[in-house]
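Budget justification aside, the reviewers requested a transparent look at the raw inputs and outputs of the sequence design task funded under Objective 1. We therefore reproduce one unedited record. The lines immediately below are the structure tokens for a 213-residue chain.
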């Protein structure tokens, strides 16, 4: 059974990576973008569910925390596209709470890791935990200020989906690029793609600002 679940996990990961490429390459909002995005979300949710099974069979708090982080990115990106009114529902707050708890747990594990063993894993936990916690807190801040609509909603959707792509690419590198240093495979995609996300979001939000004048 575990081998079957692992096969689903790997297959879904490769499908997610392929669909992410198609979604990024096609016209935003177009038919193929939406179709690829829907398959991508389904594949990523499959990755998350199978991760829960794999962690249950072989407990690994580290992989569980990273799995929650990846799920949160894709879920919030998907919800940004679905919630045209920009108003969060109970599910959004629930998932945000889970991410906040997971982010704190990753930071705690990082502290214990630095004290007990050192190495690269505590750094990875500290970075992903900080990002996850910051995203959850920023979501609550934005919702408290009012509905997230217009270009801000589009920026959230694209940014989170691209961040989910980082998670997918990271997983592929960690499993397959074992010849590279661990820190490079875990943090390389984040370092390379995050500036693109900021640039893309800035273009979208600056367009919103320009449209108000």
């Amino acid at each position: 059974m575990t081998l079957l679940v692992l096969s689903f996990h790997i297959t879904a990961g490769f499908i997610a990576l392929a669909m992410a490429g198609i979604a990024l390459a096609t016209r935003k909002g177009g038919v193929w973008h939406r179709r690829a995005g829907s398959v991508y979300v389904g594949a990523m949710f499959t990755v998350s569910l199978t991760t829960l099974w794999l962690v249950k069979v072989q407990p690994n708090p580290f992989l569980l925390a990273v799995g929650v982080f990846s799920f949160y990115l894709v879920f919030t990106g998907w919800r940004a596209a679905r919630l045209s009114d920009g108003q969060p529902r109970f599910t959004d707050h629930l998932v945000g709470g889970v991410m906040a708890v997971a982010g704190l747990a990753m930071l705690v594990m990082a502290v214990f890791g630095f004290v007990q063993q050192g190495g690269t894993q505590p750094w990875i936990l500290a970075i992903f935990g900080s990002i996850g916690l910051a995203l959850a807190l920023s979501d609550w801040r934005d919702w408290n200020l009012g509905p997230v609509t217009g270009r801000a909603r589009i920026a959230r959707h694209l940014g989170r989906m691209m961040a989910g792509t980082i998670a997918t690419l990271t997983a592929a590198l960690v499993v397959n690029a074992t010849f590279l240093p661990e820190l490079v495979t875990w943090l390389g995609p984040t370092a390379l793609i995050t500036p693109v996300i900021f640039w893309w979001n800035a273009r979208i939000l600056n367009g919103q600002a320009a449209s108000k004048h």
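The two ends are 60 Å apart (CA to CA). Residues 81 and 154 are 7 Å apart (CA to CA). Computational costs for records of this kind are itemized in the attached budget.
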